[in-house]
Design a protein that fits this description.
The two termini are about 30 Å apart. The longest helix has 14 residues. The chain has a single domain, classed as Alpha-ketoglutarate-dependent dioxygenase AlkB-like (Jelly Rolls), CATH 2.60.120. The strands form 4 sheets. The chain has a 6-stranded antiparallel β-sheet with strand order 1-12-9-14-7-4. Strands 8-13-10-11 form a 4-stranded antiparallel β-sheet. It has a two-stranded antiparallel ribbon with strand order 2-3. It has 3 helices and 14 strands. It is globular. With about 190 residues, it is α+β, with helices and mostly antiparallel strands. Strand 5 and strand 6 form a beta hairpin. Helix content is about 15%, strand content about 40%. The chain binds 2-oxoglutaric acid. 2-oxoglutaric acid binds next to strand 7, strand 13 and strand 14. The site of 2-oxoglutaric acid has 11 residues, from strand 7, strand 13 and strand 14.
Amino acid sequence: MADHSILEYYEHFLSAAEADQLFSQLYHEIPWRQDTIQLFGRPHKIPRQQHFQGEPGLLYQYSGLVMHAQPLHPAVGRLKQAIERRCDARFNCVLLNLYRDGGDSMGWHSDDEAELGQNPVIASVTLGTPRRFLLRQREDNSLRREILLGHGSLLLMAGDLQHQWQHSVPKSRKVKSARINLTFRRISG
Ligand SMILES: O=C(O)CCC(=O)C(=O)O
């Protein structure tokens, strides 16, 4: 099958000073929570903390968890506008993830929920400690890519990337400090 995946990496989307300030603000001001999901019928605490923000009434659901959009933090709203100017796309919600250290992670998945539409544009911003971001092709798991997502970077995922590839953030014993990730999305209400 032809692969029309789009993956663009902007290493210095934010300056170091902007990224430092935003990390500190979000780390302290977001009401982070460690939610529980259902895996094979059993409850599991997710290995990270998260918070979902967006337009009123929007819901984001996965693995039995339903999150209701909370108002955008003002600094997150400004970041959304800056990304929209850069990538010619519009977003109405954002999932914020806090990886407290290398013990926190994100398992293999694709962002392919029906409410994201056919070929979603997803904009992912990293603040804090760099973490490895792994991609593997769905049909042939041996085909892999890796990007070290750095402080202040922006990763754009588009085209049919979510249908052809899965991604993950693996655990790492070497990582001792925190990372915040924001994935801006557009979902239908
Ligand atoms: O933390 C990351 O870079 C990945 C986040 C992610 O995959 C997601 O929110 O779906």
